[in-house]
Design a protein that fits this description.
With 148 residues, this protein is of the alpha/beta class. Helix content is 33%, strand content 16%. Helix 2 crosses helix 3.
């Protein structure tokens, strides 16, 4: 029987560059393919708020405050309007319509803030919004009454 004489140095072929080149090409191919799949962001034509230049002097807007209490009482600038049971809010509607007419005549926006008590019913807020809609007032903000 013949004996194979294996030399320890014959198994070490050294640093193989061909597999490294293959790996580099595969990685390069991956990045080239992925570069085409990147979504391009479109430019949004928006204008940020800035300084408004006017030729005439401009008055500050007079903000009206409507409060809704937990018992349903509605007040405009701390003056109570209608009864808590009234769903139509006729007095408030009439006052809001006059407010809108005066604001239109002065060429200023009619701004209303609704301050609602945390325990007030949502239906009462809807009643106030209906009165604002009849008066055609659309600059409305909401807040909740803070506890003292």
């Amino acid at each position: 029987m013949r004996r194979l004489d294996l030399n320890a140095n014959e198994g070490n072929l050294g640093f193989q560059i061909a597999p490294m080149i293959d790996v580099v090409f595969v990685i390069m191919l991956f990045f080239m393919v992925m570069a085409g799949a990147v979504k391009v962001e479109n430019e949004l034509n928006t204008q940020l708020p800035g300084m408004a230049e006017t030729a005439e002097s401009m008055d500050f807007v007079d903000e009206q405050i409507i409060t809704i209490e937990d018992n349903g009482q509605v007040s405009l600038n701390d003056e109570p309007f209608d009864s808590p049971e009234s769903r139509e809010l006729r007095d408030l509607r009439g006052t809001l319509m006059r407010l809108k007419q005066n604001a239109d005549a002065a060429k200023t926006p009619a701004v209303v803030t609704i301050i609602s008590d945390e325990q007030a019913k949502y239906s009462r807020t809807v009643d106030v919004l209906d009165a604002l809609a009849v008066a055609r007032i659309d600059n409305v903000t909401f807040t909740v009454a803070e506890e003292e």
